[in-house]
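If I may wish for something, please walk me through the protein I am sending here so I can picture the backbone:
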Amino acid sequence: MSEYKNWLFDQQERIATLTLNRPEHSNNLTLETFQELRDITDHLRANKEIWAVILEGKGKHFSVGADVNIISSMIDYPQGPFRETLLDMQNCLDEFEALEKPTIAKIRGFCLGGGMVLALCCDFRVASQRTVLAFPEVKIGVPVIMGTQRVTRIAGVATTKELILLGRNFNARTAKEYGLVHKVVPPDELDTAVARFASKFLKLPPRTVGAAKRVIDVGSYLPLRSSQDLEIDVQAELLHSPDFKEAVNSYIEGRTPRFVGE
């Protein structure tokens, strides 16, 4: 795997940890950051030895969001190139979000704007009690880019309007009430809590977990009949897989399954 300017990558057993490595800038997000994320996503997708992914920021903060220079540098762009640049950034997030492996955001410190959008691309979000969250873009004249619909689909229209139109800070407990965070823990327990949560997926068949994620994510946008057809199609894909056979046989034989990721 290539070395990256803005990210650190580590793999222990079958868990990959992806660390946004811009602590001197409070882990803000640049165009290069998004583009590197796409390359890393390709690696994660292809590596069968990775069964779960933890996403975090190096240092005190998860991420303070997109670098303001991204927008300021595009002020004089014609609309076409401006839209193309935003679309490319959006695609980088979409590809990471669609990764058919469980992803867990470990959130500490500030998690603002684009940083919060990045966290929302993960399946699960665990935050420190001291985490400060916000969508402050409106204060600098920018509607939330690449994130509004993600927030709305999780928190609902009324809550999303409150958070985005006012741009106010909120804490991790409030984020949990809104469904934006799954679990809140004391700061000194964050690392352990996330590691323990990620390890749960090492006992499960990874192809099945990934397929179930696809059914949920894709099926939620389909009409009922189409989503039910998707469920059948996905199960048919797994029918002759070694791990599916192992799951059935171990259940019949009353033993603990031994999954291999196939």
User: Anything to note?
Assistant: The CA atoms of residues 88 and 118 lie 15 Å apart. The domain at 205-253 is CATH 1.10.12 (Lyase 2-enoyl-coa Hydratase; Chain  A, domain 2). The chain has two domains: 7-202, 205-253.
